[in-house]
Amino acid sequence: xxxxxxxxxxxxxxxxxxxxxxxxxxxxxxxxxxxxxxxxxxxxxxxxxxxxxxxxxxxxxxxxxxxxxxxxxxxxxxxxxxxxxxxxxxxxxxxxxxxxxxxxxxxxxxxxxxxxxxxxxxxxxxxxxxxxxxxxxxxxxxxxxxxxxxxxxxxxxxxxxxxxxxxxxxxxxxxxxxxxxxxxxxxxxxxxxxxxxxxxxxxxxxxxxxxxxxxxxxxxxxxxxxxxxxxxxxxxxxxxxxxxxxxxxxxxxxxxxxxxxxxxxxxxxxxxxxxxxxxxxxxxxxxxxxxxxxxxxxxxxxxxxxxxxxxxxxxxxxxxxxxxxxxxxxxxxxxxxxxxxxxxxxxxxxxxxxxxxxxxxxxxxxxxxxxxxxxxxxxxxxxxxxx
Length: 387
Ligand code: SF4
Known about the structure:
Layout: H1 22-25, E1 32-33, H2 39-48, H3 53-66, H4 79-88, E2 89-90, E3 95-101, E4 107-112, E5 118-125, E6 130-133, E7 137-138, E8 156-157, H5 160-174, E9 188-191, H6 201-212, E10 224-228, H7 232-241, E11 245-249, H8 255-261, H9 270-278, H10 281-284, E12 289-295, H11 303-312, E13 318-324, H12 338-350, H13 372-384
Parallel strand pairs: 1-2, 6-9, 9-10, 10-11, 11-12, 12-13
Antiparallel strand pairs: 3-4, 4-5, 5-6, 7-8
Helix pairs in contact: 2-3, 5-6, 7-9, 11-12
The structure holds iron/sulfur cluster.
């Protein structure tokens, strides 16, 4: 953790109206934003507009199952209602400022919100499925040293609508409406984009509940992974309230090194982090926790590091993802050699844990792990004529 206090609370909020803090339930803009409201607030927003509550169910279905982008498309609603909703409610998508496709098929969107803040999200396709990596914050407070995103100061948290809209935009592009039962190309969602999702827990939780809702996008919690740098007090809450898969950015096996690479470790050291992982419910439930480990040449990649990692994971249902470091200008590290990564992986495997070496995707469009920020800033510099 850096010396900057993050703009969030680590304790559960007092809530009302289906889990939303009262101020977030209220709508004070000209038009009520519907995307991102949980079911209870969604219904109450429509009732406040004088609609019957069953209309909420119909409109929810149009938004999240059919993918409607305008009220005019909602042909099961009377025309007069559609006109009224258009003038009183907002379901607009954010602007896509740029979309790029990598040689390997990965897609990256640069998404701009109403206040002109931007985040990026990335789709990594496989043959018959794909993962969508979405962002939870503009920038990040955590300054993990290997991560270019972490060199961008935190600007603000995304609200639930801004998180859900990344999924809607990706499905618009990929043509995944209405929500398919099988054979989805957005089969998995990973909260591994810009930001620390547990530092924006309430909005992330609300967004994920919308994404999991069976009458809309309907993605199972087993297909959603939340990645944290180790916000220990919220790991338990995440497991209890959301039950999604957990990924932990570990990257070092002793506190001295992890304090440097992942500074939040100074606040929540490795022993506390591992203890929280042992208690994580989906971990006990045959769904393994993923430990992300970026391979840094001569820093954290020795055989003794690998053996220490096996010892650390004792008692945790775990798998390890070894991530070749994606260099960026000015980065203080280099990537370990192929041979080193394989020797490291062999020791983890021999210790009884799966340890695939991740194949970098989307490097040519700066969409690989830890590269997201650089591209946004480049775009801004180009737009403003700066070099
Ligand atoms: S790795 Fe994640 S938590 Fe760490 S600085 Fe980058 S975006 Fe933030």
